[in-house]
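ARCHIVE RECORD
Type: protein–small molecule complex
Small molecule: biotin
Source of inputs: curated submission
Record status: active
Notes field left blank by submitter.
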Amino acid sequence: MDRMQDDDLQEAAVLGVLTTRWVGRHYRYVAETGSTNDQLKAWVETGANDPPAGTVLLADYQSSGRGRLGRAWEAPRGSSLLFSVLLRPGWPAERAGWLVMLAGLAAAEAITATTGVAVGLKWPNDLMVATKGQWRKVGGLLVDSGLADGRVAQAIVGVGLNVNIPAADLPTAVTPPTSLLVATGQPVARRPLLCACLLHLEQWMERAERGHSPQPEWNGRLITIGEQVQATTPTGPLVEGLAEGTDEWGSLLVRDAVGKLHTVVAGDVSLRGR
Ligand code: BTN
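STRUCTURE (tokenized, with ligand):
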């Protein structure tokens, strides 16, 4: 395979090989934008490009890419996969947490299918690979959900995967980063990986539409479970203890030293002593 040819992410190249039925069938490539999540949201709000469910916007470079908790998401031009998917699930609001789960599962499966690299998930939205006995972050998800009348009217699922970033160019981050180039020791073609992500996302969405919760499979991939963790929450105090699992909606269940079970709905987790 010609890797450079397989790296072409422009519309004709992607639509020529994409095997999905609806995710990515409306696909837009831009060489550069601020943030694909923000640009896709602007399209939805202004009606520009009239984006239907499944619309994908991919950028080869983001000048103000966003991570969770107000962090920046940086990747050198042409090195990575940076894209957002518009979904209109219409599910009851309590199922909003399913989106980050199924997007994480889809990206993890796609990475393994195209590169052979095993992927774990770090609660709630980090894609991790083990290199030299240490878990490192290879990607992250940013889901911006819009609720209306108690339902998830729309969601923009942002996916950032560090694909061909050399070790020396990896961004500094709270969770030690890596890339698929570093993990595999060779450049990875981005187009097959993108198409696999979209296909697995469509499959997980369709399972969820049929009422199948992604929580058991997601819980099974979480590297955080069974570990001593520290969880920082946006509003509450620091929670320390044993991460026992997640509830049906994706909240992390942490048992502290006196046996009290805490439900951590949002925040950040670090594995203690690592
Ligand atoms: C995180 O790990 O904190 C989430 C990172 C999400 C990054 C992706 S890149 C494509 C999309 N556009 C953004 O601005 N962010 C997401």
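CURATOR ANNOTATION: The chain is about 25% helix and 30% strand.
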